[in-house]
């Protein structure tokens, strides 16, 4: 059976870990919708439009690009998943602390939408320490981001922090 999976996150910014998970996901699903969460209660470095554009730029040369859609959303994830015909939510788990949070979210989503499953994926072990907050901290101080994020993201982060945006 061909299935559509949602890969939700803030992607502020997208990291090499996210791209590794996406690369794994397109092997498992016919279509993967990268779902950029817009949460007005969180301070973001990049706007939703900027995050979508950066994701597109980072993956456009990948052979699996045509299997991926990228969309913004706000509200309940399961409502968005239903509207897209998705049957699976993909969640990245790097460490035990991630699993505890993601497990609670998966159970909540299952209660709200029992027809939608959650699939946990782990990134390559060399990427497990990368988080958006660490990336932003390194960028803020002008550090080398080349092992954390794709080049377009590193450039955009340095521009943001240099301009004080």
Percent range for β-strand residues: 15-25%
Total of DSSP H or I helical runs spanning 4+ residues: 6
User: Could you give a short account of the major beta sheet?
Assistant: 5 strands, parallel
Rg, please? 16 Å
Look at the structure and name the CATH superfamily: HUPs
Structural class assignment: alpha/beta
Provide the low-confidence segments as ranges: none
- Mean of the pLDDT scores? 92
The helix-strand sequence is: EHEHEHEHEHH
Total number of distinct structural domains: 1
**What CATH architecture label applies?**
3-Layer(aba) Sandwich
**What is the topology, as strand order, of the major beta sheet?**
3-2-1-4-5
Helix fraction, binned, reads: 40-55%
In one word, what is the shape?
A: globular
3D structure, described in words:
The chain is α/β, with parallel strands linked by helices. The chain has a single domain (4-125), classed as 3-Layer(aba) Sandwich (Rossmann fold). It has six helices and five strands. A five-stranded parallel sheet has the order 3-2-1-4-5, with helices on both faces. Helix 1 links the parallel strand 1 and strand 2 (31-37). It starts with a strand and ends with a helix. The model has no long low-confidence stretch (mean pLDDT 92).
């Amino acid at each position: 059976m061909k299935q559509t999976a949602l890969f939700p996150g803030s992607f502020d910014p997208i990291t090499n870990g996210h791209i590794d998970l996406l690369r794994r996901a397109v092997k498992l699903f016919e279509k993967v919708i990268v779902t950029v969460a817009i949460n007005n209660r969180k301070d973001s470095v990049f706007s939703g439009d900027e995050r979508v554009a950066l994701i597109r730029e980072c993956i456009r040369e990948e052979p699996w690009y045509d299997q991926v859609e990228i969309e913004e959303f706000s509200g309940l994830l399961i409502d968005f998943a239903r509207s897209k015909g998705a049957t699976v939510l993909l969640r990245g788990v790097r460490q035990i602390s991630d699993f505890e949070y993601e497990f609670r979210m998966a159970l909540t989503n299952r209660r709200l939408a029992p027809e939608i499953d959650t699939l946990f994926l782990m990134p390559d072990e060399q990427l497990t320490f990368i988080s958006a907050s660490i990336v932003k901290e390194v960028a803020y101080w002008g550090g080398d981001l080349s092992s954390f994020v794709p080049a377009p993201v590193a450039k955009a982060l340095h521009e943001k922090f240099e301009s004080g945006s």
